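User: Fold this; tokens only.

Assistant: Input:
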Amino acid sequence: MLGFIKSLYFSKIFFVIVFGLAGLFLFSFWIPLLYSLTWILTAVFGILLFVDLSLLFMAKPLDAERILPEKFSNSDANPVILKIKNRRNFKMKVAIIDELPVQFQKRDFLIHLSLPAGANKQEEYFVNPTARGEYFFGNLNIFSASSLNLVKRRSIFNHNQMVKVYPSFIQMRELDFLAIDRKISEPGLKKIRRIGHTMEFEQIKTYIPGDDVRTINWKATAKQAQLMVNQFQDERAQPVYSVIDSGRVMKMPFEGLSLLDYAINSSLAFSNIALKKKDKAGLISFSDTMGILLKAASKSGQLHLIMEKLYNIKTNYKDTDFGILYAHLQKKVPQRSLLLLYTNFEHIEGLKKRLPYLKALARKHLLVVIFFENTTLETLKNKIPENIDEAAHQMMAEDFSNQKKLMQKELEKSGIQNLLTRPADLSINAINKYLEIKSRGLI
């Protein structure tokens, strides 16, 4: 009985009729003829109400299901599918209220449908998350009504479904085309870049006059009683790292996403391209302490491993310590690598404070410092001022913009590769910078 009461809702038409009958009873005090007519109308209304209740509650009127993808892609439109089946042999009117995760802050979700007898229908809507993490969907509420539409029955499906929001794998797939080499090589010619004395082991073989004596394997020589040497193959896969500053400067929001999430989305797309280009992709995060250090590799599950590590990166709102990054890389990444460092500087003094560590990193590795334009200030700078306050704000915006250009020149003067980009263009610009470095043979 309690379940019946909880699932029973009255429609607007029901209340209009009830108030109409109450009005007729009131007027029948002055017009006696109305009294008998009103009782007849009330009896008819009661019969119709009983029929409507029987149609809706004698058996389960419909089935419904919310189908969610295995994971959501951050900052992209993700589909949610609703499947509804009318199990009755008459047409039904349906109102759908889906309880979306609290992160979306949407409280006006409503879909109206008309389902013919025995019909199956599928509805699709899209959600656009702007933060990584777990998203919990509440009840899928279906309010069904017959053609009489006097009462509605509430049915609840798919209580508490959870979906994890991962870095933007949709953006990663969209940028896959950048891994395609459009250059047509001349017939019979293949360009191979040899990088010094490679250490990628291939096999042990018998010494032949002319072999590099530095590669003699003395243990194998002692066992075989003849000179044996290690043979190495040309190293084609180079280690490349996405280095993400997870300090407080990366929490600045632009167009719904923080700079940290822009960097994370870009790192996933860039790592995918690097792996398709047969390089080894790795991941590093740091702030006032070291965070993640995933060694560069080109194994089959490396991209999935990078995605899982990126999912868990969070900021502790502390100032970033580049000294810790330098010291850690000295110990853990001895081989010369390409480092794409995602960070941000709002003032030239902030860059100068960290410049000695950046120079030290650039001496051992190929370092690309990626930092961000303040698009809000760029919009303000291009606006025509209408009063003194707006003019003052515009001058400040101009000063910030000039400081970003000074930072670029300071980095270039120190021999450090850099990329100043709008947050929305980060992924495509970072990948293009990597492809440019590859084409120039810098790494």
